Amino acid sequence: MQMSRLFAPTLKESPQEAEIVSHSLMLRAGLIRQVSAGVYTFLPLGLRTLDKITNIVREEMNRAGGQELLMPALHPADLWKETGRWQVYGPELIRFKDRRERDFCLGPTHEEVITDLARKEIRSYRQLPLLLYQIQTKFRDEIRPRFGIMRAREFLMKDLYSFDRDVEGLKESYEKMYRAYCRVFERCGLEYKAVPAESGVIGGDVSHEFLILAESGEEKLMVCQSCSYGTTREEEVCPQCQTHLEEKKGIEVGHIFQLGTKYSEPMKAYFLDRDGKEKPLVMGCYGIGIGRTMAAAIEANHDDKGIRWPVSIAPYEVAVIPVNSKKESHREQAEKVYRALLEQGFEAVIDDREASAGYKFNEADLIGFPFQVIVGEKAEKGGMLEIKIRRNGERIEVSQEGVIQLLRELKKNHGETREP
RNA sequence: CGGGGCGUAGCGCAGCCUGGUUAGCGCACCUGCCUUGGGAGCAGGGGGUCGGCCGUUCAAGUCGGCUCGCCCCGACCA
Asked: What is the mean pLDDT of residues A117-135?
């Protein structure tokens, strides 16, 4: 992509509505624009990152045996009345009537719709266990949308539902998802913690929250330094290894629940078990806020210059920057490197604009390309290029011939994408 | 929903208290020259229903009422 063509309207100053860093940087780097309170447009760069996270989530859900489907956002009230949530859910549920005066709502979550599907299609224990998921836009009329896309009224979420014949099976599915979640956040390059949680409106017994550790996080948690233990409760000492717990803050990006038969019973989602008896499906549900993860990633990865994307979720991996676009040698060499990068499968942009070097550097830092290939004076004389690593500010000189190889290595070292 | 704050050019702001030429500044944008290793410089230029409605007044960005929108703090959540 040529920066001269890229639709990424950046801002030098922070708009006054943005209170937290991620919101401000998403606006400034041209990732999102607000349409209404809690309602946003994702611009090309923002969408690329959103897609990267989505794809990591999709890969890990598939790896764990999940099958993707897509449910409607539009729900008939009847389903919600069956579980009683039409009454219970409150004004957060966006309700309306169609032209025939029938009640509808926009789906804030999909237990009702998936359970309806399950009861119609699952007959036998032979079809179990079953893991179904979707990545879809959810609607919640939040009392107070906040912090940009951190708490939006319309947002992208992955929700997976597990169906098992008994509690034992549920526990296995739950374990599987727990591990899949760990892989998702690791691959996104994020420091996270899973902690036992209250299950809230969704219902059910056991549940865990997944939190991205960030200073600006709204949730307090206690973290053990020597093992992976984390909790939201006040405990002073780790029950697993007796080490002193440290207080941290986190942003909730995922939540997994063991639902049991909370939805299958009232909706009569039964299957025939091996013993010939009809039993309710034992369910679990597992959510990840995709946009929220994106915002949390920025909260956890930024400096005063801008975003420092982990490679795996950066909108582009490399920016090629000719210091002076008017100098033919800069331009030509930059072009050459850029084309080579594309050929080698890198996601790259070239800053072909006739802006000052400082302007281009600052903008590259703001957007947060993990690697910048700078083509300047040294390239004119000895053909040496410079690679700047956004994460730590390190600069490495490299010959034109060595640039691809070096970037490959850097990507491997700095890429948190842990391929199994 | 309760409490607080803000709406003046794309963004950031001044002007409002104490009403009075043509509503101003910085950045961004357009043209030209010049410049290019950390958001350059000079010259010229475009862009405003001062959120909206009603009122007070000879006169309203400025005063009063209503209204809409947005942000922040609280209960809730991915």
From this structure: 97
In this predicted structure, the answer to whether residue A200 has a pLDDT above a threshold of 70 is no
Nearest nt to the CA of A143 via C1' is B76
Mean pLDDT rounded to a whole number for chain A:
92
Q: Where are the domains of chain A?
A: 21-303, 316-414
Strand B bases with any atom < 7 A from protein Cβ: 1-2, 6, 11-13, 26-28, 35-40, 69-78
Q: Does domain A21-303 have CATH number 3.40.50.300?
A: no
Q: Which residues of A212-231 are buried (b: 16+ CB within 10 A; e: fewer)?
A: bbbebbeeebbbbeeeebbb
| Length A35 CA → B49 C1' (Å) | 22
CATH number, span A316-414: 3.40.50.800
Give the per-residue pLDDT at A201. Answer: 57
- According to DSSP, the residues that pair with A280 across neighbouring strands are A270
Point out the nucleotide closest to A324 (alpha carbon to C1′). Answer: B36
* pLDDT value of residue A400: 93
Q: A2: burial class by Cβ within 10 Å (0-12, 13-18, 19+)?
A: exposed
User: Protein A26 CA to nucleic acid B72 C1', in Å?
Assistant: 19
Q: A316-414: same fold as A21-303?
A: no
pLDDT band for position A325 (cuts 50, 70, 90):
confident
Nearest protein residue to nucleotide B78, judged by CA and C1' positions: A289
Taking the CB of residue A99, how many other CB atoms lie within 10 A of it?
A: 5
- List the A190 CA – B60 C1' distance (angstroms): 55
Round to a whole number and report the distance in Å from the CA of A3 to the C1' of B34.
Answer: 24
What is residue A259's predicted lDDT score, i.e. its pLDDT?
93
